From TrEMBL:
<dbReference type="InterPro" id="IPR002902">
    <property type="entry name" value="GNK2"/>
</dbReference>
<keyword id="KW-0732">Signal</keyword>
<keyword id="KW-0812">Transmembrane</keyword>
<protein>
    <recommendedName>
        <fullName>Gnk2-homologous domain-containing protein</fullName>
    </recommendedName>
</protein>
<keyword id="KW-0677">Repeat</keyword>
<keyword id="KW-0472">Membrane</keyword>
<dbReference type="Pfam" id="PF01657">
    <property type="entry name" value="Stress-antifung"/>
</dbReference>
<feature type="domain" description="Gnk2-homologous">
    <location>
        <begin position="18"/>
        <end position="121"/>
    </location>
</feature>
<keyword id="KW-1133">Transmembrane helix</keyword>
<feature type="transmembrane region" description="Helical">
    <location>
        <begin position="263"/>
        <end position="288"/>
    </location>
</feature>
<dbReference type="InterPro" id="IPR038408">
    <property type="entry name" value="GNK2_sf"/>
</dbReference>
<feature type="domain" description="Gnk2-homologous">
    <location>
        <begin position="127"/>
        <end position="235"/>
    </location>
</feature>
Length: 297
């Protein structure tokens, strides 16, 4: 019985890889010959061919209600414009395959995020659903100190990113804290959010760490409006210039070798908590029930 509880708990979080990091929101379907589909295709192709935007944020809509489509593309702050476009291009292909006929969907990749919907998603803070991956390795040493140091680090980045302008809300740091040795971290919001909304979104996302990634040496958590990541190894390059274009292009990009060390968690905060609580309750119940049966007999 206890083994069953353990199995359920593991089944929820066992599903490796960045490549599967898409969420089909299941808020409605379009048919393959619909106006919505034509609008979506048009929008996504103009989005990924826009060469004027050099700050890594794309927000555009296309069509007339009820077939109007809204899309957001967001690249990590250290990703250069051409890489950004190609990341978004790849993800438009993947997302329309992964979530066929879905009116609302999002894909979170290492370098870029793509969302589209039938409703206006611009300037609106959304911290659900979340998508999390974490490193399998645990932090050694005093966990409480580690968590405190991590919080301090992330919180500093939160303030910095939230204070960014309407073109970019991004901050990254390499920290050499006492307990950390070295920790690399970045945080990001879609820049159409207000400073307060960005700050709130990140706070809410940091609050997921205990649910998914407690004590892990690295993790990445995405919500529709904001995301953050921390690792022991360098996974980002220098923040890309907005304009003029950067002359130095050498960037320490993410280490593919670490992909296999991740575990994925998808869900809404509430659903996740409910499931965990149900498992805990059923496990406690089973544990409690067993010993009782004997004395009664
Ligand atoms: C959309 O289509 C999928 C797959 O065919 C189906 O499972 C889902 O229930 C549909 N969603 C809505 C909102 O109709
Ligand atoms: C789409 O296809 C269906 C049948 O597959 C048809 O009934 C419908 O009229 C078509 N709609 C348009 C806008 O062409
Ligand atoms: C798109 O984003 C830019 C930059 O954040 C912002 O200035 C603009 O108002 C946004 N457009 C819409 C339609 O939300
Ligand atoms: C570019 O980066 C490399 C390695 O990071 C460094 O050696 C070089 O000096 C940099 N060049 C400029 C122009 O900043």
């Amino acid at each position: 019985m206890e083994a069953t509880c353990l199995f359920i708990a593991q089944a929820i979080i066992a599903q490796p890889n960045f490549e599967n990091s898409f969420v089909c929101l299941n808020k409605g379907n379009y048919t393959s010959n619909s106006t919505y589909k034509a609008n979506l295709n048009h929008l996504l192709s103009t989005l990924t061919s826009n060469t004027e935007i050099d700050y890594g944020f794309y927000n555009s809509s296309y069509g007339q209600d009820p077939d109007k489509v809204y899309a957001i593309g967001l690249c990590r702050g250290d990703v250069k414009p051409d890489e950004c476009r190609s990341c978004l291009y790849d993800n438009t292909k993947l997302l329309t395959q992964d979530c066929p006929n879905q009116k609302e969907a999002m894909k979170q990749d290492e370098y870029c995020i793509l969302r589209y919907s039938f409703r206006n998603i611009f300037g609106i803070m959304e911290d659900e659903p979340f998508y999390a991956l974490h490193n399998r390795n645990d932090q050694s040493g005093n966990l409480e100190t580690y968590n405190q140091d991590l919080w301090t680090l992330l919180d500093g980045l939160r303030n910095q990113a939230a204070a960014g302008g309407s073109l970019r809300k991004f901050a990254e740091v390499k920290s050499t804290g006492i307990n950390f040795k070295t920790q690399y971290a970045l945080v990001q919001c879609t820049p159409d959010l207000s400073q307060t909304d960005c700050s709130d979104c990140l706070l809410s996302a940091f609050g997921l760490i205990p649910l998914c990634c407690d004590g892990k040496i690295g993790a990445v958590i995405f919500t529709p409006s904001c995301n953050f990541r921390y690792e022991k190894y360098p996974f980002f390059g220098p923040v890309a210039d907005i304009a003029p274009p950067s002359t130095n292009t050498s960037a320490a990009k993410g280490n593919d070798g670490n992909k296999s060390q991740t575990v994925i968690i998808v869900g809404s905060i509430i659903a996740f908590v409910v499931v965990v609580v149900l498992i805990i309750i059923s496990c406690i119940y089973l544990r409690v029930r067993k010993p009782r049966e004997k004395p009664e007999m």
